Amino acid sequence: MASTIKDVAALSGYSVGTISKYINGHSVKEKTKLAIDQAIKELNYSPNNIAKGLRNAKSYSVAILLPMLDSQFCTSMISSIESYLLPKGYSVIVCECHNNEKMELQKTQFLIDKMVDGIILIPYALDGKQIQMIQEHNIPLVILDQKINHCKTDTILLDNFRAGYEPTKRLIDLGHTNIAIISGVAKHFTSENRLLGYKKALEENNIPIKTEYIQSGNYTLEGGYNALLRLFKLENKPTAVFISNYDMTIGAYLAINNLNLKIPSELSVIGFDNFALSKIVRPTLSYAEQPLEDMGLAAGKLIFQRIQNDYSDFPKTLCFPPNFHYEESILLLHKNPN
Q: In 21, 176, 211, 234, which residue has its Cα 20 to 30 A from 141's Cα atom?
């Protein structure tokens, strides 16, 4: 007589519910997993094929898990990813964790339970727990915009060092030495590398790095606004600022307007990304630009490749170069002799 799930429960010492949860691909403690595996082996138990099929069947859906939906970067990525996956027959599920690590883990488990075929993750937490959860369930995964060093994953990135270095160097070449940066979220890969680029440009030109000129805006509109206000409370105010993401650029411009600062005569400005603001403000905004469409398409193509079980080039890292547009918002003080 064939063994049943009740027999596995009796031998392992765990409930039928726990056994069912494990068989259907949900996460259980390592001790529990080992005991259930041993009982299944001893009893030569074969799980119900319908239950197995639920886990193995395709849902033809891909999830995008991201920190916040009100970010222009995130919404642009969703559009580009969808443009590739929808013609392939895949729907896209979007989940937002509201910049909350606990919620990010909850949303990760939700997507695992939904049995999505793949996940594109713009990580918020940096400890890799959400990545581990996804990989334990063998769900194809592509990381976008961040690099979690201790996790072996496919990754799509901007060359963030260059994105911070080149605008700073341009301002130096125009004769500026009091150059501020409004940086992003502390310890995040993108923020750290854009800041490293800024610092490197200063160091190469023997310009001291002033900590008061490095202000965090946490990649938010409000953060950019407050960071610009802090810079203009300094006794030695900067003559130029590089704002390292789009949402902070909007916030900084609101502060600039409230302070009635004249651009570029009182402050030279280089912002980030080519959205509505760069076309509306006068004088015309200079900015560093991510190739968002190319990055989103690459994420869609790579997750589709992994869903087809093609891991021939795993783990793959794609690093995209930024583009730079220098317009009327920056002022020549004098030519840099270097």
A: 21
Residues 43-67 pLDDT 10s: 877 654 434 444 556 888 999 999 8
3-class secondary structure, 250: helix
Residues in the chain where the model's pLDDT stays below 70:
1-2, 23-26, 46-57, 275, 277-278, 336-338
Q: How far apart are CA 286 and CA 209, in angstroms?
A: 23
Q: Which residue has the tokens 């997507």?
A: 111
pLDDT in tens, 259-270: 999 999 999 999
- Phi and psi, residue 161, nearest 5°: -60, -50
Work out the mean pLDDT of the chain and round it to a whole number: 89
| Distance between CA atoms of residues 266 and 161, nearest Å | 27
Name residue 103's amino acid. Answer: M
Give the CA-trace dihedral at 249, 254, 259, 263, to 10 degrees.
50
* Nearest CA-CA partner of 16 in 44, 41, 48: 48
Distance, CA of 58 to CA of 95 (rounded, Å): 20
Residue with tokens 């409004």: 182
